[in-house]
Design brief:
single chain, mainly alpha, Rna Polymerase Sigma Factor, Chain: A, Sigma-W factor, transcription, transcription regulation, DNA binding
Length: about 180
């Protein structure tokens, strides 16, 4: 059983992280807001039944993730890029917009299983500790680290492929 004051404060303190997680999965601001509202309502209605002795944040993140995955399954639709990374837009040393690179990252991430996308977002965008990610995705910490490592390796590999295609020198070598 969780007290109303504690629940209100906890929901308020974690709403931004929960929203960003929902947005990273659903890629739609309206759907992310709906998912968050569903989680809030469910928690409020079940406040007398919730038996959490520690790590309420992990519980809320897991509930948010599960609700988002349910929505994706229910609607079975493809979500468009929503601009999660707009704050990171800039120009790199070659004059290529970082925005373009972030669009590629999203495309490459979409090729991976949902758990890889969630782990990557939680660690690299949110900066959430491995222990909390482990509880949220219900996977041992060692597996979370492996998933993140493999996800980064996949991204590097995909960027290397693109760079080889875009580099004029490699085109000349292949033409010979």
């Amino acid at each position: 059983m969780i007290k109303e004051k504690v629940l209100k404060k906890t929901l308020y303190d974690n709403k931004d992280a929960m929203y960003r997680l929902a947005l990273s999965i659903l890629k739609s601001e309206a759907d992310a807001e709906d998912a968050l509202q569903d989680v809030f309502v469910k928690c409020w209605h079940q406040k007398n039944e919730i038996q959490i002795t520690s790590d309420i944040r992990g519980y809320l993140m897991r509930a948010t993730r599960n609700r988002c995955l349910d929505m994706v399954k229910k609607y079975n639709r493809k979500y468009e890029q929503s601009g999660i990374y707009e704050d990171f837009m800039d120009m790199d040393k070659n004059g290529v917009e970082v925005k373009d690179q972030l669009v590629w990252i999203d495309r490459f991430l979409e090729q991976l299983p949902e758990v890889n996308q969630t782990v990557f977002h939680m660690r690299e965008v949110e900066g959430i500790p491995f222990e909390e990610i482990s509880k949220t995705v219900n996977t041992p910490i060692s597996n979370v680290r492996t998933i993140l490592s493999r996800t980064k390796k996949h991204l590097r590999k995909q960027f290397n492929i693109i760079n080889r295609i875009d580099t004029p020198n490699t085109l000349k070598k292949t033409e010979r």
